[in-house]
Amino acid sequence: MPATRASFGWLDRLVDAVHPPRTVYAHCDIPCGIYDPYEAQISALTVLRMDQLIGELPMPAMDAKPEDRAAYASKLSRYTAVKESHAERVKSEVRVIWGDYFTADHAKQYPQIHDVTWKLLKQASKARQGTSVADAQELVKQVQEFSELFWQTKGAKTRRIPSLQKSGGELVVQVPP
Question: Would you tell me how many other CB atoms lie within 10 Å of the CB of residue 150?
């Protein structure tokens, strides 16, 4: 089952301790003004973790039992499906912010918005298509850059905190005023 924000309850508690939450109801396509690149960051870290797990998955020996081969194929299929789902989720979350939140005024003040977004979307596709840990790490890096840029457009300062995920990495969070 793909990971959801609810699956990371302990991470939410850590982030809440560092940065107390504000009331947020939901994102809608109205536009409602509620945008946050958090989900894109978690999804990028998930892509990285799935590539790590795929790389660590021992291939069965030539004389392996059929059930061992089936177990390998099942794990590989699940890891791949989750990785692809989360790479697409990165793209979806970023496209919503890019298309619904960023304005022409943002683009004038931050002319790199379009290039950063375009490269990130291309990197998400590349990470989705392969199993390279380096490609997934680059995706995480680009999502972090996008997140920092997003918060700059809101006039917020950011900092990076350890994600505490098995994949490692950091999350970009806004610093309370």
Answer: 26
Computed over its alpha carbons, how large is the radius of gyration of the chain? 18
Give the closest residue to 64 by CA, choosing from 76, 77, 52, 73: 73
Q: What is the pTM of this model?
A: 0.81
The pair of structure tokens assigned to 124 is 């998400």
Q: Domain-by-domain residue ranges, the chain?
A: 5-174
Best CATH choice for the domain 5-174 from the list 3.90.78.10, 1.20.120.400, 1.10.10.10, 1.20.1250.20: 1.20.120.400
The distance of Cα 147 from the centroid of its chain, to the nearest Å, equals 10
Average pLDDT, the chain: 89
